[in-house]
Amino acid sequence: MNNKFFLFLFLIVLIGCNNKKEVSFGTLNFTTEKETNKPLVVINVPKAVKQTKVSETINNKIKEKIISLLIFDDDITVDNIDDAISSLNDEFLSVKEKLPGDATRWEVTINGEVVYETDKIITIDLETYEFTGGAHGYESSILLNFDAVKGTLLSNEELIASKEEFYNLAELKFRTQEKIPANVPINDTGFMFEEEVFTLPSNIGYTKKGLKLLYNTYEVGSYADGQIEVLLPYKEVNNMLVVKGKEQE
């Protein structure tokens, strides 16, 4: 009897351990600052440090996002950051050769941090700046939501359980924040939603204060509008989410 009891306890502990979050983070740092004849690339992003499948999956997804920001030619396929930087450099040198007087040094900066973490969800915010000529660079934010147990990257659709209810709340919050009356078209004050229909942003993510809806520059407005953030408090949105969030200090 005792042996069976201890075996039962062992299995319970084992199952519990297997369901625990197995991720801790350090930082991946990279810079070409001293290579003045090449584009300036500065990368400071979270890196899962434990040697587990979960960490590997998270790191691979972060790497894919970094590569996508560095690759200038969509026809080129690379699987590591060094080759992506080489591709960016080749494009820069090509432009410099054609327009030697206008080829200001290009720049890609990617700074990331873990902005929300529980035993179920990890959200990483990548803040990016890209300059490849022109009047000004382009700043953007990328919110990545990971399943903390499996390490898989979750789509926005996988975050939301009650989609219609969530959509209606998001539009209400957006209109209230931007002072757009409910009885007028969503673009009445100058926004640029396609076909005058409110849409959710590409970036949705958990934060310590609530679920963030983030529209990057040009997504629904002009350059002057910049980024637009709408925060949905967890107490108002949790019943619509697959994984409930909680406020953190």
Kindly report the spatial arrangement of strands forming the biggest sheet: 1-2-3-4-5-6
Which stretches of 5+ consecutive residues score pLDDT under 50? 5-19
CATH superfamily of the largest domain: Fervidobacterium nodosum Rt17-B1 like
Write the H/E string, N to C. Answer: HEEHHEEEEHHEEEH
Helix content: 25-40%
Annotation, overall tally of beta strands: 9
The residue-averaged pLDDT reads: 90
C-alpha geometry: flat
Structural class: alpha+beta
Distance between the termini: 46 Å
What is the count of structural domains? Answer: 2
CATH topology of the largest domain: Heat Shock Protein 90
Number of helices: 6
- In percent, how much strand structure appears in the residues? 25-35%
What is the assembly state of the chains in this entry? single chain
Q: Determine Rg (CA atoms, Å).
A: 22 Å
Per CATH, the class of the largest domain reads Alpha Beta
Question: What kind of sheet is the major sheet?
Answer: 6 strands, mixed
Structure in words:
- The chain has helices spanning 2-18, 53-70, 81-98, 156-159, 163-178, 234-237, and strands at 25-31, 40-48, 107-117, 121-131, 138-147, 153-154, 203-206, 211-215, 228-232.
- The chain has 249 residues and is an alpha+beta fold.
- The protein has a six-stranded mixed β-sheet with strand order 1-2-3-4-5-6.
- It is flat, with a radius of gyration of 22 Å.
Summarize the structure.
With 249 residues, the protein is α+β, with helices and mostly antiparallel strands. The chain is built from six helices and nine strands; from the N terminus they run H-E-E-H-H-E-E-E-E-H-H-E-E-E-H. Strand 5 (138-147) and strand 6 (153-154) form a beta hairpin.
